[in-house]
Write a structure and sequence with these properties.
Largest sheet: 7 strands, mixed
CATH class of the largest domain: Alpha Beta
Number of helices: 10
Distance between the termini: 17 Å
Oligomer: single chain
CATH architecture of the largest domain: 3-Layer(aba) Sandwich
Radius of gyration: 18 Å
Length: 262
């Protein structure tokens, strides 16, 4: 079995690690876009163009499913990617985990990029899945870029700035950007009041990984031998994992996967 994932940068690591945990025998294809990142400031048409290029590069390796492991690309490009690749290649998008967070009660904070915060897309999810729950949308300028660079000081500053905008009584935080899952515990520490119930964090990686297996017609086998290979594509070119990936446990967990050979 082979699962491909795409993102502009290393935001795909959380979903990749989740797939690897469920199926350590699965071959993985990571398709990102260092030549074109960041995607956030681009027009919707530009985002779609770059995400489609990453999807086509991944599809050339004949995966059994493709995960669009990026909230921004899922908002703007998922329809175009599905139109081109399905039904031959199942495509799974990434949606902020607003529904399960709201189901557990509130108050809820949604941390997201400034472009996503307040967008019709996010407001629609809140309307559909969090009616009657207190929800605060929290913009996190610079956080995804800081995570991409593994810049600890910049991560700390961005997390603290977002925490100051997060109500003190919040009990659930939705991580509305795939990059944020890589620093989830730093986020929890920033919003966790002393002597208060533990704040719950809601990411999308585990659900997306499980859905990709279902779409590929596979089942979880976490005890399988870790025989899966790893192919990395940088703007369509075969490459190696970037050193910054090893900053995060999700990236280090992939080192057991052997590089694929042509």
């Amino acid at each position: 079995m082979k699962i491909a994932l795409l993102d502009s940068g290393i935001g795909l690591l959380a979903a990749t690690a989740a797939v690897h945990r469920l199926r350590p025998d699965a071959d993985l294809v990571l398709s990102n876009d260092p030549d074109g990142m960041p995607w956030g400031p681009r027009t919707p048409e530009g985002i779609t163009e770059h995400a489609l290029a990453c999807a086509r590069a991944a599809a050339a390796h004949r995966p059994d499913a493709l995960i669009v492991a990026c909230n921004t690309a899922s908002v703007h490009a998922l329809e175009a990617i599905r139109a081109e690749l399905e039904p031959g290649l199942p495509v799974v998008g990434t949606v902020p985990a607003i529904k399960p967070a709201a189901a557990d009660g509130g108050p809820v904070a949604i941390w997201a990029t400034p472009a996503t915060t307040g967008s019709p897309y996010q407001r629609g999810l809140i309307r559909d899945f969090a009616s009657g729950v207190a929800v605060t949308e929290v913009p996190c300028p610079g956080l995804a870029d800081a995570v991409e660079r593994a810049d600890s000081a910049a991560i700390e500053a961005a997390v603290q700035a977002a925490a100051e905008l997060t109500p003190a009584d919040v009990r659930s935080v939705v991580l509305g950007c795939t990059h944020y899952e890589l620093v989830a515990e730093r986020i929890r520490a920033a919003v966790q009041p002393p002597s208060a119930p533990r704040v719950s964090l809601y990411g999308s990686a585990a659900a997306v990984a499980a859905q990709a297996l279902r779409r590929a017609g596979a089942v979880p086998m976490p005890d399988a031998e870790p025989t899966g290979t790893l192919t990395v594509l940088h703007s369509g070119r075969e490459a190696e994992l970037e050193p910054v990936v090893l900053t995060y446990p999700e990236g280090r967990s992939l080192m057991a996967a052997a590089p694929a050979h042509p």
